[in-house]
Each structure stands twice: as structure tokens, then as C-alpha cells.
Design brief:
The chain is mainly beta. Helix content is 5%, strand content 28%.
Length: 75
């Protein structure tokens, strides 16, 4: 993955976490259609988990997080 300037473009960046077995893949998109895998990790998780969403600002500049179209899909 490149710099944060390449990562965040325009007003919105879509983020997606996908779990398949013990692999979790983080992906991002600038249009919600074309996705780029950012990182994949292998982690031991129970079959059933609870999830949540949080926005954290580690910058000294103000940051406003907005969540739209939040979806949970179970396959």
C-alpha cells in the first residue's frame, strides 16, 4: 500500500473487512465498486463473534467520521 494521500481521496473512502475462516482481509475503495486489498491477516477467532465500528483520530488535526451504508453480510 502507498501513502495515506493515495489511500484517502475525495470526500469518501469505503472500507471493507471480510472474514473467511481464520483469514481477515481489509480492502478499500474510492467509488464503492473497485476494491483494493490492503492487508490480509490470519487470526484465530471463534466461529461466532460480536463486531462493532469505531473511528479513532491519532492526528493533531480535527477529524470528522461519518458512517453511511453500514452493512453486515453473513454467508
Amino acid at each position: 500500500m502507498g501513502t495515506l494521500d493515495e489511500f484517502f481521496q475525495g470526500r469518501s473512502t469505503w472500507l471493507r473487512l471480510e472474514r473467511r475462516g481464520q483469514k481477515v482481509t481489509a480492502s478499500y475503495s474510492h467509488d464503492g465498486k473497485d476494491w483494493t486489498a490492503a492487508k490480509e491477516i490470519t487470526v484465530e477467532l471463534p466461529k461466532k463473534i460480536q463486531i462493532g465500528v469505531s473511528a479513532v483520530n491519532t492526528s493533531t488535526k480535527p477529524f470528522k467520521a461519518e458512517f453511511e451504508d453500514l452493512k453486515l453480510t453473513v454467508k
